[in-house]
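Reopening this ticket.

The earlier resolution said the output was attached, but the attachment link was broken on my side. Pasting everything inline this time so it's all in one place.
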Amino acid sequence: MRIVLLGAPGAGKGTQCKRIVAKYGLLHLSSGDILRQERAAGTELGKKAQSYMDSGALVPDVVIVEMMVAAISKTPQTWFVLDGFPRTVNQAAELDKSLASVGQKIDAVLNLKIDDQVVAQRMTGRRSCPQCGAVYHIENLKPKVEGICDNDGAKLIQRSDDSLEVVANRLKAYHQQTEPVVDYYKNNNTVYDIDANRNADEVTALIFENLDAFVKV
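Inline output:
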C-alpha cells in the first residue's frame, strides 16, 4: 500500500503512523524528518531548503516535492505511508505526476477528522519535560506528581507552539492550505474519513478496519 495520512495538527497522525507501520510493515516517510535529515547531511536539496528557512520564507512546493520524491525513490520498498505531506493541492498534484512517471500511485488516503475545539484542548493541555522530552497532558496523561516529570523530576513546561494563539494560527493554516487536499484526493483516490475525536485506540481500530478491507479488495 501507498498511503497518505492527512489531518489537522493534534489529530494524532504521529501516533497512528507508528501503529500503521508496525502492523502493515510500511515505510514511514515524514516530511519533517526528511527535511531535517537533508539539512543535517548538507545535501543540495537541504541547502536549498535551508536558504528559504534562513530568510523566514516558506520552503516552496517544488523543493518539498523534489525532496519527498527523492526519499521515495531511495527506499528499497515501494510501500509507504506519507506523514505531513502533501500539505497543499499543488504538492499533491506534483506528487501524483512524479509517481505516475514510474508507474506508481497513491492507493489510499486516511483523513483524520477532528473538531477544532478538541485540537485546542489536546494541544494547549500538553506539558513537556525540558530535559528528557517526555510529553504529558493535564487531563489525559497526568504525571504522578502534578507539574513534575516522572522520569527525572524536572518541572514540566508548556511549549510556546502549544499556546492557544499558535494553535489557532496552525488550524487556520490547515483549513486554508491542507484541508482542500482531501477534496483533491476524493476526486481520484480512495479516501477514508476517520473520526479522530475518539481516543487513540479507537481511532487505530477504525483505521485498521478500513485498511484491512482495502487490502482484501
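Reporter confirms the inline version is readable. The chain has a mean pLDDT of 88. DSSP finds eight helices and seven strands in the chain.
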